[in-house]
Predict the structure.
Amino acid sequence: MIKVDHPEVTDTVVVGVHHHDVARLRETLGGLTYPAEKWQVIARAMTEAAAHRIAVEPRTLQQLWALPTSRYASFPQILVGIARTARGHPRRSER
């Protein structure tokens, strides 16, 4: 669980992002320098996986590729972007 100051984030969780996803994304994006463009976020995930000789989980790649093209100032901003692109999120249709 994380604490962030963002209007779409409660005290401890990002609405629309499962805590297992948060943990997996945090591990996958560890060491990412912010601000980061979408392509840098995806590249970091791929580089991190290659460094550990593992594949990036398909769900992680799906979530990252679905992010709106943007510059992300922090990990919580990435989580909000993922929440907004999640199936069933009311803002998904606003993209």
